[in-house]
Amino acid sequence: ELNNCCNANETQNKTTGIASNKSNFKDCYLLQNHPNPFSQETIIEYYIPIENAQASILFFDMNGKLMLTKTIDIDAGILRINSGELKPGMYFYTLLVNREEVDTKKMILTE
């Protein structure tokens, strides 16, 4: 679905409501967490080129409610999520770079 904007490459994520222009971030990436599902700890790997100013990973429940925000370092990195940070359930996690969505993945936390 295209956002009613002058930039046809920009779309809006229906779950998070965050505008996305993925063509600006072709060198950034967000990998699927592993293990998935997880019960104690999971790892999310990412890469953001150093010319970017800021980055974070946001975690949303299935209703689109923001549950957790993690500021991350620019460059290659690993984010560890412990089970105590979220309740068991299914979540979307979104990489934001310079306040724009780069990618979204799904993860499952079991009891």
Compile the SSE list and pairings.
Layout: E1 11-12, E2 19-20, E3 29-30, E4 41-48, E5 55-61, E6 66-71, E7 75-82, E8 89-97, E9 100-109
Antiparallel strand pairs: 1-2, 3-4, 4-7, 5-6, 5-8, 8-9
Total number of helices: 0
Q: Give the structural class.
A: mainly beta
SSE order in H/E notation? EEEEEEEEE
| Oligomeric grouping of the chains | single chain
Task: Provide a short characterization of the protein structure.
With 111 residues, the protein is mainly beta. The chain has strands at 11-12, 19-20, 29-30, 41-48, 55-61, 66-71, 75-82, 89-97, 100-109.
Describe this entry's structure for a reader.
The chain has 111 residues and is an all-beta fold. The chain contains no helices and nine strands. It has strands spanning 11-12, 19-20, 29-30, 41-48, 55-61, 66-71, 75-82, 89-97, 100-109. Mean pLDDT is 84; it is low at 1-11.
What keywords describe this structure?
4-stranded antiparallel beta sheet; globular; mainly beta; disordered N terminus; 111 residues
